[in-house]
Amino acid sequence: MENHIKLVAILNIVYRSLTLIGAIFLAAIAIWFTDIYAFLVESYAINPHEIPLGLLNIVPIILSLIAVWMVIVSLAGIIGGIGVLNRKEWGRIVLLVVSFFNLIRVPLGTVLGVYGIWVLLNKETIQLFTPFERSVN
User: Fold this and answer.
1) Pick from 21, 52, 110, 113: CA 20 to 30 A from residue 119's CA?
2) What string of H, E and C letters represents the secondary structure of the chain?
3) d(CA 125, CA 110)
4) What tens digit of pLDDT does each residue of 19-41 get?
5) pLDDT per residue over 76-111, tens digit each?
6) Is the CB of residue 129 less than 8 Å from the CB of residue 87?
7) pTM score, two decimals?
């Protein structure tokens, strides 16, 4: 089970690092959305009269909210993975929560989420992360 614990932690750190890069890219798109839209209109790729103005105003807000959510979950996954590598109980709990969020990210996130839940809820894993209680005589 030791190898599974290390593997799930490392996979989460790598997967969430890549997601963090994607979140930064999405935030950049949100910031430069009006410039991108203007370029598409000028190059005749889209007709500006087909898209409602209200929609154009809300798109950067939605993209920014998604990017912020991705950053929060990604940082939690990276921190949780580091905690699991250091055998911290809080790291196991954080990574377990992130694994549930991974389930909705088909297909890689789903596979990683199922694997993470299986490893982190295993009885052997729980025993490895539970501090030993010392009985006082």
Assistant:
1) 21
2) CHHHHHHHHHHHHHHHHHHHHHHHHHHHHHHCHHHHHHHHHHCCCCCCCCCCHHHHHHHHHHHHHHHHHHHHHHHHHHHHHHHHHCCCHHHHHHHHHHHHHHCCCCCHHHHHHHHHHHHHCCHHHHHHHCCCCCCCC
3) 21
4) 999 999 999 998 898 788 778 77
5) 999 999 999 999 999 999 999 999 999 999 999 999
6) yes
7) 0.84
